[in-house]
Amino acid sequence: MNELLAFQASQPFTLGVELELQLVDRRDGDLTHAAADLLRIARKRHPQLDIKLEITESMIEIATGVRLDYQGILGDLCELRDAVCEAAELLNVGVCGGGTHPFQSWTERHIADGPRMRYLSDLYGYLAKQFTVFGQHVHIGCPDGDAAIALATDGLALARENGLPTAVTLNLTALAGALADRHPERAKALLRESTELRATLDYEAWVELARAVVVSARLGDWPQVLDLAPPSIRHLHWVGNRVLLCTILNLVARALLPNAAEAAAVVKGAAERLAAASIAAVDSSAHVPGSPGPPPRQAGGPHTTTGFLTELNQSTTQALHDTLGEARLGTLRAEGEAMGYDRAVAYALDAIAQVTPSSGAATRRSVEGRNRVAGH
């Protein structure tokens, strides 16, 4: 199977920073819609600087060049800050730092103009407006994948030493994903540790849960896919992220196949309906003539553009065909395609429970872990 991403080599320990900034109304401190106007002014006065739109009109992103040291980064950031603040002053707009805004309402956000933003808005719907968070990304150059993994391992050790359990779980899962193809046994150990540690924490993040399911699938650990999928499905259903839910349902179909092929075929059909609905939403959107459309898609749905997921969907379909026959497979897939969104989620959760009566193990471990931490 293909690597999820081809590693792009960089000069070792070069630095680059991206920073997302809030644009606020100076009268009341709420987010305001000024990104396009600010960008127009800043680019006219400072065309050499990397200043660009982000997902909503209340955000602006700045990016440094690739620098050899901290002083180079600091110099770029100061120049970018001055340029953005200069343009903001002309618009009577305030600029402030990252994180989240304390009282903004996502329903009042406007999606920024641009092919990428329209694509994301069409694909994710109202969730795109909830992406109004302001982060900082620090990029460190590495000559090859091995050096990057070694650096990530050092970062994990640092998170452990500083007692940051949420950072540890995130890094464990991410590192497991990076090692899944080359060092699967080590990746399994890291993912197992991440799952056990996450069970002791009093929170669940749908992004992290979904990532753990995908990494488990890449490792071929189908029982763990079925163990981790239910909380991921519930979270994705609750937030309405049908794009990622489509991916998780496809993985569940593959995991169900050995012991419940008919249920797997129904879940596969439900996933294909979700994929088709997402594609239709994007393809029916109006794009500015002459502008690039959405990123190219491969067969299997909008979230299955990597070689791994595409190959897995194809192999699952072939295995179901070989097991059930063309006629029976068609009937069962049509049953899944006919299901509504809520019904498809309920069916998938019930199918997992039927195959793995212990599918609540993750939930029980979570409760037991929290009780241990609380001293009960």
Write the layout of secondary structure elements.
Blueprint (H helix, E strand, L loop, with lengths): L14 E11 L9 H11 L4 E4 L5 E5 L6 H22 L1 E4 L18 H10 L11 E5 L4 H17 L3 H15 L4 H15 L7 H13 L3 H18 L2 H15 L4 H23 L23 H18 L1 H12 L3 H15 L5 H14 L2
Antiparallel strand pairs: 1-3, 1-4, 1-5, 2-3
Helix pairs in contact: 1-2, 3-10, 4-5, 5-6, 5-7, 6-14, 7-8, 7-9, 8-9, 8-13, 9-10, 9-11, 10-11, 10-12, 10-13, 11-12
Can you walk through the features of this model?
- By secondary structure, the protein is an alpha+beta fold.
- The chain has three domains: 15-138, Alpha-Beta Plaits, CATH 3.30.70; 144-203, no CATH class; 220-281 and 298-364, no CATH class.
- Helices cover 58% and strands 8% of the residues.
- It is built from 14 helices and five strands.
- Strands 1, 2, 3, 4 and 5 form a five-stranded antiparallel sheet that branches.
- Helix 1 (35-45) crosses helix 2, helix 6 packs across helix 14 and helix 7 runs parallel beside helix 9.
- The longest helix has 23 residues, at 261-283.
- The protein is globular and about 65 Å long.
- The two termini are 46 Å apart.
- The relative contact order is 0.10.
- Mean pLDDT is 83; it is low at 281-305 and 360-376.
